[in-house]
Specification:
The protein is α/β, with parallel strands linked by helices. It folds into two domains: about 5-180, Dna Topoisomerase Vi A Subunit, Chain: A, domain 2 (3-Layer(aba) Sandwich); about 205-250. It is about 55% helix and about 10% strand. Helix 4 crosses helix 6 (about 150-165), helix 6 packs antiparallel against helix 7 (about 165-175) and helix 9 (about 205-215) packs across helix 11. The chain is globular.
């Protein structure tokens, strides 16, 4: 008898287009861990930190919503039984990668024996899974990458290093993961470039937004957001993340 399949999806948009022919239970990682405070000594403290941040910066999402819609899904991940296949559907951009690292961290804490796989688009584009049709989604599922226990341990460490802002260890672990995970280094490089340096005093995302506004000769958000998504697809930021950066740029640098 084949084991039950579980599918952990990075967001609800993929759930809406998920092929009906792929059997299994679906869990949705509803987070944007790339954005904001990720402190907390325990999971309970961490969830409280995130609930406070999300409810303060995402107007349509209250603290109650966070616990009901986000924490409940993470608890489902922790409750996945042993001896089942777990498929992690995550893209290559930084937004997806940080969520992926956290999900692997949760799975690794359980210490259970599961076959775990990564399902990702063959190529990184700004559209991700949304740019694939049903047959293409089925194809990448059939060609999923098996994640061994040693690799799971390292990916879980990526979450710890991200949370602790240990950028050197982020790069080190990504390099240790090797060729099958070569897509991680571009995302980590993009993360490192988020922060101001002596060469780039604004950090890459804000500097890119300013350049886009100059190139488009526009300070309207929608065209600037579309162009940012094209030029900086490695970040995977949604409109809410870019809107806040956009507002900061307009307020302080223009």
């Amino acid at each position: 008898m084949k084991p039950q399949n579980y599918h952990i999806l990075n967001g609800d948009s993929l759930k809406e287009q998920f092929p009906k022919s792929i059997q299994g239970k679906i869990i949705v990682a509803r987070e944007a861990l790339v954005d904001g405070n990720v402190e907390g000594e325990s999971l309970e403290e961490f969830y409280e930190t995130r609930a406070t941040f999300i409810s303060s910066h995402y107007a349509e999402y209250s603290k109650e919503d966070y616990f009901e819609k986000t924490v409940s899904e993470f608890e489902k991940i922790q409750a996945i039984p042993s001896e089942v296949d777990i498929n992690l559907w995550f893209e290559d951009d930084l937004f997806c990668q940080v969520n992926f690292w956290f999900v692997v961290h949760l799975l690794n804490k359980n210490g259970q024996k599961n076959s775990i796989f990564l399902v990702r688009p063959k190529e990184h584009t700004q559209y991700g899974f949304g740019g694939l049709n049903e047959s293409e989604l089925i194809s990448i599922y059939e060609n999923r990458l098996s994640i061994g226990q040693n690799e799971l341990n390292k990916i879980a460490l990526l979450w710890e290093h991200y949370k602790n802002n240990d950028t050197e260890k982020l790069v080190q672990i990504a390099k240790e993961l090797g060729e099958n995970y070569a897509f991680m280094l571009p995302a980590i490089d993009a993360h490192l470039q988020r922060f101001p340096t002596s060469e780039e005093k604004l950090g890459r995302p804000k500097a890119s937004l300013i350049q886009i506004m100059k190139d488009l000769k526009s300070e309207e958000f929608e065209p600037v957001f579309r162009e940012f998504s094209k030029r900086e697809s490695i970040y995977g930021f949604g409109d809410l993340q870019v809107q806040r950066l956009f507002d900061e740029v307009k307020s302080f640098f223009l």
